[in-house]
């Protein structure tokens, strides 16, 4: 007799975001300066600007993967802080007195979903 | 035959798909639906601000042949009422083995359409000393979310070994208990892949796990984010994301784990 168990989960503990940081072309930041620690600091600063120190302390953001050449990263945030983080990233306008913007490319409650993007994939030979 | 409109977005604009056994599914907005004049139904994900409609046409129906009312009306709606134009991705598996699947491309080319061959993109990565969960010691249902997250980390090429070495940047860890795999392979194919192809691959993985002495093998299949349908031909939408995928893990004793993931605009499979 075959037995199986099924569990349905309707809420995810975490949300994942694929983001990149772009600086104004006329005022770029040296990429060698922006390590993963400083990138995290940029994210924390954006949350602090909008929600204050208490807000920043209540949202725990993990940088799961960081590409220093492209200034892109995969972030993980608890579901409760997802909207606040996305708002904060959207409204951030400068880092180290240089104009910049966070681009949010993909969001999902599953990390697996960020491994592919059928909208960006180019079918070719 | 499988077709999907290329570079269309299900949340803005129109999307078309063709699935066996010859069902054409259109997802259109209110204006196009009214102009098109075909009978359909309101989408389950339709809202007051954004009305969406779904139209299904059975192209293998007896009444859908040239000269019959059904066929002539559908053709008139597409050609004369509204000029809808799409680029399509398509693939065909002939019933007869003596027919080459590329003959469908010749058919469309002879009909005057521009056709180009697309190939699957393949990438292979091998990892040494990768921290991975030990399924036999884990409560699978309790840790299902963490297990799926670990598979996601491998697929995204995230360095699972870092763990909590730098607690400020990341606190990500593999599910506990974990073991170290000395040789781990990750192969990826991207493109339009048929269910038949996936079924053959799963059979091969099953044989490999049994004969090759592997502790397990896994396969993740992602549906297109802008497909109008998902599992069991249920409607699929795109809100903040259009994820619809499954991860299937095979063990040597013929037991398996199946994770099915859908987005906010999907019907639970």
List keywords for this structure.
heterodimer; A: 125 residues; alpha+beta; five-stranded antiparallel β-sheet; 29% strand; B: 269 residues; three-stranded antiparallel β-sheet; 13 strands; 22% helix; globular
How would you describe this structure to a colleague?
By secondary structure, chain A is an alpha+beta fold. Helix content of chain A is 26%, strand content 29%. Chain A has 2 helices and 5 strands; from the N terminus they run βαββαββ. Chain A has helices at 36-58, 82-91, and strands at 14-23, 62-67, 72-78, 94-95, 98-108. Chain A has a 5-stranded antiparallel beta sheet. Chain B has 269 residues and is an alpha+beta fold. Chain B contains 5 helices and 13 strands. Chain B has helices at 30-36, 69-81, 103-110, 144-155, 195-212, and strands at 2-6, 15-19, 23-29, 41-42, 52-58, 87-91, 121-127, 130-133, 178-181, 184-190, 217-222, 244-250, 256-262. Chain B has a 6-stranded antiparallel beta sheet. Chain B is globular, with a radius of gyration of 22 Å. The A-B interface holds A 5, 7-9, 12-14, 16, 36-37, 40, 60, 62-66, 74, 76, 106-108, 110-119, 121, 123-125 and B 6, 9, 89, 116-119, 141, 144-145, 148-149, 151-153, 155-159, 166, 168-172, 190-192, 220, 222, 224-226, 240-243, 245, 247, 261, 263, 268.
* Cα shape of chain B: globular
Specify the number of helices of chain A.
2
Overall geometry of chain A: globular
**Largest interface pair:** A-B, 36 and 43 residues
Average pLDDT of chain A, to the nearest integer?
91
**String of helices and strands of chain A:** EHEEHEE
Over all CA atoms, what is the radius of gyration of chain B? 22 Å
Spans of at least 5 consecutive residues with low confidence of chain A: none
Number of helices of chain B: 5
What is the succession of H and E elements of chain B?
Answer: EEEHEEHEHEEHEEHEEE
The helix-and-strand class of chain B reads alpha+beta
Order of the strands making up the biggest sheet of chain A: 2-3-1-5-4
N-to-C span of chain A:
48 Å
Strand count, sense and barrel status of the largest sheet of chain A are: 5 strands, antiparallel
In terms of DSSP E residues, the strand content of chain A is 25-35%
Number of strands of chain A: 5
Measured by DSSP, the beta-strand proportion of chain B falls in 25-35%
Q: Which range best describes the helical content of chain B: under 10%, 10-25%, 25-40%, 40-55%, 55-70% or over 70%? A: 10-25%
């Amino acid at each position: 007799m075959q037995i199986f168990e099924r569990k349905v989960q309707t809420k995810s503990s975490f949300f994942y975001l694929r983001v990149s940081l772009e600086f104004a072309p006329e005022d770029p930041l040296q990429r060698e300066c922006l390590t993963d620690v400083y990138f995290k600091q940029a994210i924390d600063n954006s949350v602090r600007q909008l929600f204050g120190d208490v807000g920043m302390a209540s949202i725990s953001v993990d940088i799961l993967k960081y590409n220093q050449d492209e200034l892109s990263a995969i972030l993980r945030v608890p579901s409760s802080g997802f909207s606040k983080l996305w708002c904060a990233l959207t409204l951030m306008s400068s880092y180290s007195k240089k104009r910049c913007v966070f681009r949010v490319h993909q969001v999902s409650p599953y990390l697996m979903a960020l491994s592919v993007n059928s909208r960006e994939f180019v079918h070719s030979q | 035959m499988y077709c999907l409109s290329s570079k269309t977005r299900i949340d803005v604009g129109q999307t078309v798909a063709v699935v066996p056994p010859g069902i054409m599914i259109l997802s259109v907005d209110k204006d196009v639906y009214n102009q098109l004049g075909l009978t359909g139904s309101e989408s389950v994900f339709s809202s007051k601000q954004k009305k969406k409609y779904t139209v299904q046409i059975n192209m293998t129906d007896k009444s859908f042949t040239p000269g019959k009312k059904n066929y002539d009306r559908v053709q008139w709606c597409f050609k004369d009422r509204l000029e809808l134009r799409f680029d399509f991705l398509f693939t065909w598996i002939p019933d007869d083995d003596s027919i080459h699947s590329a003959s469908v491309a010749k058919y469309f080319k002879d009909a005057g359409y521009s056709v180009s061959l697309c190939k699957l993109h393949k990438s292979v990565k091998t990892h040494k000393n990768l921290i991975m969960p030990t399924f036999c010691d884990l409560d699978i249902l309790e840790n299902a979310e963490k297990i799926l997250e670990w598979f996601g980390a491998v697929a995204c090429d995230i360095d699972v070994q870092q763990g909590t070495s730098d607690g400020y940047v990341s606190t990500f860890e593999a599910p506990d208990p974990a073991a170290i795999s000395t040789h781990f392979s990750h192969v990826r194919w991207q493109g339009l892949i048929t269910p038949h192809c996936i079924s053959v691959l799963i059979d091969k993985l099953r044989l490999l796990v049994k004969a090759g002495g592997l502790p397990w093998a896994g396969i993740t299949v992602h549906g297109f984010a802008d497909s109008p349908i998902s599992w069991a031909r249920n409607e699929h939408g795109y809100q903040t994301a259009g994820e619809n995928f499954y991860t299937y893990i095979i063990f040597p004793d013929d037991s398996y784990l199946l994770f099915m993931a859908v987005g906010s605009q999907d019907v639970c499979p």
